[in-house]
Amino acid sequence: MTTKTLEIGGMTCGHCLRMVKQAMDGLAGVTLDDLRIGKATVTFDETQVSVDAIAEAVRDAGYDVRSTQ
Questions:
Q1: Which residue numbers delimit the HMA domain (predicted)?
Q2: Largest Cα–Cα distance of the chain, in whole Å?
């Protein structure tokens, strides 16, 4: 299991939090550890999903992934 923090642009409210959570919930092997406006910390199984796929899901939800740490 790998843990990463994604810095996410464009999040401003509770609706944004729900949209990002929904995007993460749709990915197998991903656990959302912490979600705040502008940042999400996730733990994921690299055999099931990549950090790039997680970032893409967030982008598909309408937000910008600025960095992953």
A1: 2-66
A2: 33
